[in-house]
Amino acid sequence: MKSRTPFVGGNWKMNTTLSSGSELVRGVADALARVSQVDVAVFPPFPYLVAIGAILRERHGRVRLGAQDVCQEPDGAFTGEVSVSMLKDCAVRIVLAGHSERRHVIGETDKMVNQKVKAILGAGLDCILCVGETLAQREAGQANQVNERQVRAALTQVPEDQMEHLVVAYEPVWAIGTGHNASPEDAQDAHAKIRLVLEDLYGPRVAQQTRIIYGGSVKSANARAIFDQPDVDGGLIGGASLKVGDFVSIARSAADSANAGD
Ligand code: 13P
Question: What is the set of domains in the chain, with CATH numbers?
Answer without folding.
Answer: 7-260 (3.20.20.70)
